[in-house]
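User: Please fill in residues for this 478-position structure.
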C-alpha cells in the first residue's frame, strides 16, 4: 500500500513538474512576442510597404488587445475552465502567428498581431492561475513562480536577440513562425498533465461589468500608447484617457450593485493584494521604461547595431535568473515584507548606478555594473510580488487574481514608458546645444533617476502598508 501511494505521489509530482515546464515555455513565447518585432520593423516596412503611422501598430495592436482583454479573459477562465481558456488562447496565438508569418499586406500583419494579443490575454492569466493551483504551498509556490518569472524574463531579454538573429540570417517572418511548434506542443501535452479547474459554484459572466471594464482598459491602453507617440495634451491621447476614467467610474458603480460582479470589490479591497498590486504598478512603470531607454542608449549613444544591442542585454537576463534563484530563499528567511523592501531598494540602487553613466563611458565601465545590480534586484522582486498579489486566491478567483496582476503590469509599463520617455526627451531637447551625445545621455540619466524614485516609493509603500497576509474566510493560507 505504501509503495503504491509513494509511486502515485511521485507520478503526481512528475506531472506537476512537466506541466510547469510546458506553462513556462508558453509564457516564454508570449513574452518573446512583446518585443520580438522591434528589431524587425524596418524589414517589415520594406517588404509590406508600411507607412510610418501604420508600422507603429505592428507593436501597438498586440499591446492594445493584450492589455485590454486581460481582465475579461481572466474571469472567463475562472468560470469556463482555466485549462480550456488557456488551450484556446494558445491555439489562437499559434494561428495568429501563422497569419503574421504569411502576411502579404500591412493590414494582415496588424490584424494578426491584434489576434496574437487576444490569445495572450487568454493564455497568460489562465496559465498563472493553473500554477497557483498546482502549487498551493507557500514555499513550493514561491519556487514555481521563481521559475515562471525567470523564464518570462529570459523571454523578454531573448526577444531582441532572437529577432536580430532571425531577421539578419533568414527573414522577419520566422520571428512568428517559430511560435508554431511551441503552441502545438502545449495544445497536445497540457491536457495530459493538468486537470480542468473552474470556480466551484455556478456563476454567469457579468456582461455590463465585462463591457465597461474591457472598454476602460482598452481606452486606457490606447490613450497611453498615443501619449507615448505624441503628447499628453494631444486630443487623440487625452480623449481616450478621459473616456477610460468615465468608463472606470461607471464600472465601479455597476460592480457595486451587481449580484455576481466581474471583479468583486471585496477582492480588490483585500489589503495584502491591493498593496502588492500597487507596488507592482510602480515597479512595472520603472522597469519597462528602463528597458526601453537602455535599448535606445545602446544604439544611439554607444552606436550598437540591433543584434549587438540585443546581445548586450544577455547579462541582464543572467542577473534576473540569479535574483529569481535567491528570491524564494529571501522570502523564506526574511518573510515577505522585508524581502520585498530589500529587493526594491537593490533595484533602485541599480537604477541610480545606471543613471550615473557618462557620454564617453563604454559598455563595460558605464552600463554593465548598473545593469547587473538592477537585474538582480528585479529578479528578487518579481516572484515575491507575484506570490503577494495572488495571496488568498482560491478555486473561485485564481484566474481573476492573475488577470488583475497582469493588467497592473501592462498598465504600469505603458504609463512608465509614456511618462519617463517624455521626460527623457524633454531633458534631451533642452540640452541639444551641449552636443547630441551629452544631451541624450542626460535625458537617459534623468529618466532613470525618476525610475529609481518610483521603485523607492514602492519600497516605502510595502514597508508601511504590507502587513501579514490574512486570507479571506475559507481561503488557504498562502
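Assistant: Residues filled in for all 478 positions:
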Amino acid at each position: 500500500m505504501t509503495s503504491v501511494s509513494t509511486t502515485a505521489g511521485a507520478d503526481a509530482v512528475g506531472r506537476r513538474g512537466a506541466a510547469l515546464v510546458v506553462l513556462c515555455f508558453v509564457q516564454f513565447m508570449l513574452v518573446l512576442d512583446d518585443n520580438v518585432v522591434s528589431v524587425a520593423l524596418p524589414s517589415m516596412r520594406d517588404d509590406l510597404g508600411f507607412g510610418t503611422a501604420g508600422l507603429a501598430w505592428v507593436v501597438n495592436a498586440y499591446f492594445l488587445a493584450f492589455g485590454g482583454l486581460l481582465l475579461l479573459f481572466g474571469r472567463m477562465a475562472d468560470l469556463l475552465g482555466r485549462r480550456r481558456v488557456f488551450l484556446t488562447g494558445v491555439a489562437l496565438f499559434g494561428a495568429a502567428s501563422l497569419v503574421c508569418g504569411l502576411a502579404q499586406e500591412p493590414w494582415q500583419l496588424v490584424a494578426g498581431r491584434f489576434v496574437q494579443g487576444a490569445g495572450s490575454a487568454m493564455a497568460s492569466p489562465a496559465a498563472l492561475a493553473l500554477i497557483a493551483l498546482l502549487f498551493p504551498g507557500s514555499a513550493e509556490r514561491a519556487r514555481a513562480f521563481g521559475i515562471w518569472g525567470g523564464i518570462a524574463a529570459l523571454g523578454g531579454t531573448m526577444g531582441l536577440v532572437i529577432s536580430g538573429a532571425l531577421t539578419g540570417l533568414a527573414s522577419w517572418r520566422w520571428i512568428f513562425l517559430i511560435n508554431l511548434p511551441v503552441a502545438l506542443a502545449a495544445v497536445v501535452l497540457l491536457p495530459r498533465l493538468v486537470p480542468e479547474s473552474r470556480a466551484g459554484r455556478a456563476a454567469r459572466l457579468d456582461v455590463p461589468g465585462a463591457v465597461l471594464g474591457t472598454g476602460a482598459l482598452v481606452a486606457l491602453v490606447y490613450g497611453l500608447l498615443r501619449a507615448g507617440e505624441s503628447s499628453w495634451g494631444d486630443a487623440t491621447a487625452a480623449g481616450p484617457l478621459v473616456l477610460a476614467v468615465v468608463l472606470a467610474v461607471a464600472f465601479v458603480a455597476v460592480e457595486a450593485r451587481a449580484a455576481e460582479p466581474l471583479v468583486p470589490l471585496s477582492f480588490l479591497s483585500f489589503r495584502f493584494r491591493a498593496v502588492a498590486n500597487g507596488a507592482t504598478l510602480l515597479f512595472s512603470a520603472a522597469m519597462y521604461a528602463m528597458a526601453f531607454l537602455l535599448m535606445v542608449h545602446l544604439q544611439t549613444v554607444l552606436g550598437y547595431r540591433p543584434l549587438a544591442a540585443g546581445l548586450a542585454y544577455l547579462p541582464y537576463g543572467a542577473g534576473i535568473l540569479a535574483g529569481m534563484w535567491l528570491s524564494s530563499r529571501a522570502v523564506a528567511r526574511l518573510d515577505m515584507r522585508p524581502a520585498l523592501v530589500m529587493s526594491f531598494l537593490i533595484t533602485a540602487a541599480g537604477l541610480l548606478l545606471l543613471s550615473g553613466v557618462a557620454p564617453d563611458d563604454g559598455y563595460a565601465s558605464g552600463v554593465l555594473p548598473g545593469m547587473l545590480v538592477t537585474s538582480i534586484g528585479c529578479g528578487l522582486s518579481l516572484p515575491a510580488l507575484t506570490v503577494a498579489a495572488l495571496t488568498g486566491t482560491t478555486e473561485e478567483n485564481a484566474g481573476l487574481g492573475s488577470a488583475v496582476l497582469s493588467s497592473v503590469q501592462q498598465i504600469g509599463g505603458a504609463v512608465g514608458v509614456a511618462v519617463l520617455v517624455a521626460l527623457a526627451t524633454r531633458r534631451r531637447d533642452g540640452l541639444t546645444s551641449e552636443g547630441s551625445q551629452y544631451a541624450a545621455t542626460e535625458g537617459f540619466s534623468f529618466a532613470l533617476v525618476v525610475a529609481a524614485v518610483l521603485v523607492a516609493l514602492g519600497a516605502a509603500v510595502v514597508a508601511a502598508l504590507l502587513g501579514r497576509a490574512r486570507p479571506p474566510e475559507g481561503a488557504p493560507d498562502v
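For context: The mean pLDDT is 83.
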